[in-house]
Write a structure and sequence with these properties.
281 residues, Aldehyde Oxidoreductase, domain 3, TIM Barrel, 2 domains, 11 helices
C-alpha cells in the first residue's frame, strides 16, 4: 500500500494544478444541490490499479462523497467492467474527475505493462522483472506500487538505498576494480555491491574484485550467454538496456536472475478508463 501522507501530498498537488481557479464550468452549469453517481469503466483490457489514489482525489475535494471499489487492485478487467463508483454532489464529482482518472490511468497502465512482462516469463523460470528509477518525478511511490500490483519487483528506491556502480562512477573512480574496491571499503556492511558492466572484460574485472551483483548492460545474445556462464555461482546476474517483451523468454532460459525494465514506468501507455456520470437529482 501507499502511506496516507504520500497520497495526500501527491493528490493535493495535482488538485491544485486543476482547481487553482475553481471550476467555472460546473459552477455555471450544475446546480449546487445536484446529485449524481459516476462509474469508472474500463474501455480496454487492463490490470486494475490506483483505487486508493482515485478515491483520495474525490475525498480531498469533498469528504461527503462516497467512493466504492468494484474491482480490487491487481484484478484483470475487461472493457465495460466497472472499477469504482462515486456518489454524491455532482459538482464535486466533476471537479475531481480528471485528477482521479489521471492517476488511475497512469497506474493501471504501469500495472498492465508489468503484468505482460511477468506473464512472458516461462513457467518454472526464476527471472524477476524489476523496475528502475526512470519514474515520473514526484510519482515514484505510485508507479513503484503499480509495478508490484502488476507482479513485478522494485529495484532500489533512491540513491541512498543501495550501492549501484554505473558507467560514470567507473570513469570517476578510475576503473572497475577501483570502483568495486572502494565501494567494498566504504559502503555500509548491509549493502551488496552491484556494478554495471558493458563488456565481458569488464565483467571479468568486476567478478575478480568481488562484485556481488553484475548488471549486464546492452549485451547481445552471444555475449549474454558467455556472461551468464562466467558469473554463475559467483554473482547475481541482472540484465538491462532496452529490454522488450520479445526478449523475456530468452533471458529466462539463459538463467538471468533479474531483468530491469525502465519501460515499465517511463513508457507504459495510460490505461483507457472513462467516468460515466448519471444524474440522480
Amino acid at each position: 500500500m501507499i502511506a496516507d501522507f504520500l497520497l495526500n501530498d501527491v493528490v493535493d498537488r495535482a488538485l491544485a494544478e486543476d482547481l487553482s481557479g475553481g471550476d467555472v464550468t460546473s459552477a455555471a452549469c450544475v446546480a449546487e444541490d445536484e446529485r449524481a453517481v459516476a462509474r469508472a469503466v474500463a474501455h480496454s483490457p487492463l490490470v486494475v490499479c490506483g483505487g486508493a489514489v482515485f478515491a483520495r482525489a474525490f475525498y480531498r475535494v469533498d469528504p461527503g462523497l462516497r467512493v466504492e471499489e468494484k474491482l480490487a487492485d491487481g484484478s484483470r478487467a475487461q472493457p465495460g467492467e466497472v472499477l469504482w463508483l462515486v456518489e454524491g454532489s455532482a459538482r464535486s464529482i466533476l471537479m475531481a474527475e480528471r485528477t482521479g482518472l489521471n492517476f488511475a490511468q497512469r497506474m493501471a497502465g504501469v500495472a498492465t505493462l508489468t503484468r505482460a512482462f511477468v506473464d512472458a516469463v516461462p513457467q518454472g523460470r526464476g527471472l524477476r522483472i524489476a523496475d528502475t528509477r526512470k519514474t515520473t518525478p514526484g510519482l515514484r511511490a505510485l508507479e513503484r506500487y503499480a509495478v508490484r500490483v502488476g507482479g513485478g519487483h522494485n529495484h532500489r528506491d533512491c540513491l541512498g538505498s543501495a550501492v549501484l556502480i554505473k558507467d560514470n562512477h567507473i570513469v570517476a573512480a578510475g576503473g572497475v576494480r577501483a570502483a568495486v574496491e572502494r565501494a567494498r571499503a566504504h559502503a555500509p556492511h548491509t549493502s551488496r555491491i552491484e556494478i554495471e558492466v558493458e563488456s565481458l572484460a569488464q565483467l571479468d574485472e568486476a567478478l575478480l574484485a568481488g562484485a556481488e551483483i553484475v548488471m549486464l548492460d546492452n549485451f547481445d545474445s552471444t555475449a549474454l550467454r558467455a556472461a551468464v556462464e562466467k558469473a554463475h555461482g559467483r554473482a547475481i546476474v541482472e540484465v538491462s538496456g532496452g529490454l522488450t517483451l520479445s526478449r523475456v523468454k530468452e533471458l529466462a532460459e539463459l538463467g538471468v536472475d533479474v531483468a530491469s525494465v525502465g519501460a515499465l514506468t517511463h513508457s507504459a501507455p495510460a490505461a483507457d478508463i472513462g467516468l460515466d456520470i448519471e444524474r440522480i437529482g
